[in-house]
């Protein structure tokens, strides 16, 4: 009888020790430490595949056409040929007109073979170019599976200096490779709450010469 009592006592002591150990272990695991750092500026997330070419970058580049401006963006290439009439915009493998949405001041530009008219747009009148690569531009809708190109033109306020109400700009350009001559005249001003801007451009391109100096026949345009 004495032996039995001692056994029960020892067993109860062991059970109490186990529960006490589990209780201490559980209380240690429930301790959570949180560390936070304060930031001085807000964190923003840009849209994927979006690039913006500013007015300053365009003026510094002195591009001959829209194609040369777009060709500076990673993921965009100009293929189809060296002539402006045969060039195509290619965004990550998409180059068909129905796969790329093109806008000028918010107005969609469609029904162009190889974007022929877009490449003759006067680059000096471009204020900024926004390009979205891929189908990330929800405002495009149909026709923008490959991406979208949004061109914003300059207005009179962009060209007038402080205190001016009228101005005229005359520009001329020449390329020796294809004897490209480009002339443009722009008149702009404001009166009261009205602004106006009139631009005219003419181009005359001769036959191109390849790397060996040979003339490429019928490559000129006017």
TrEMBL record:
Broad class of the protein's primary localization: membrane
One GO term (biological process): siderophore transmembrane transport
Stretches assigned to the TonB-dependent receptor plug domain: 51-147
The UniProt record lists the keyword NAD: no
Pfam families with a match to the protein in the record: Plug
One GO MF term: siderophore uptake transmembrane transporter activity
Presence of keyword Transport: yes
GO terms for cellular component: cell outer membrane
Localization in the cell: Cell outer membrane
Domain of life of the native organism: Bacteria
Membrane topology: Multi-pass membrane protein
Cleaved signal peptide residues: 1-26
Keyword set, alphabetical order: Cell outer membrane, Membrane, Signal, Transmembrane, Transmembrane beta strand, Transport
Entry similarity comment: Belongs to the TonB-dependent receptor family.
PANTHER family the UniProt entry points to: TONB-DEPENDENT HEME RECEPTOR A, TONB-DEPENDENT OUTER MEMBRANE RECEPTOR
Official protein name in the record: TonB-dependent receptor plug domain-containing protein
């Amino acid at each position: 009888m004495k032996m039995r009592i001692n056994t029960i006592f020892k067993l109860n002591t062991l059970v109490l020790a186990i529960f006490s150990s589990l209780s201490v272990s559980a209380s240690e695991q429930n301790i959570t430490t949180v560390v936070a750092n304060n930031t001085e500026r807000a964190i923003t997330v840009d849209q994927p595949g979006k690039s913006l070419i500013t007015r300053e970058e365009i003026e510094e580049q002195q591009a001959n056409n829209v194609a040369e401006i777009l060709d500076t963006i990673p993921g965009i290439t100009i293929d189809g040929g060296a002539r402006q009439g045969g060039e195509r915009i290619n965004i990550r493998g998409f180059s068909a007109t129905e796969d790329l949405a093109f806008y000028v001041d918010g107005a969609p530009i469609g029904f162009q073979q190889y974007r022929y008219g877009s490449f003759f747009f006067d680059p000096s009148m471009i204020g900024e170019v926004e390009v979205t690569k891929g189908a990330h531009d929800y405002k495009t809708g149909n026709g923008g599976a490959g991406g979208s190109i949004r061109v914003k033109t300059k207005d009179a306020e962009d060209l007038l200096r402080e205190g001016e109400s009228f101005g005229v700009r005359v520009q001329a350009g020449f390329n020796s490779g294809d004897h490209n001559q480009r002339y443009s005249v722009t008149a702009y001003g404001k009166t009261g709450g009205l602004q106006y801007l009139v631009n005219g451009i003419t181009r005359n391109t001769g036959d191109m010469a390849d790397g060996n100096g040979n003339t490429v026949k019928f490559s000129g345009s006017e």
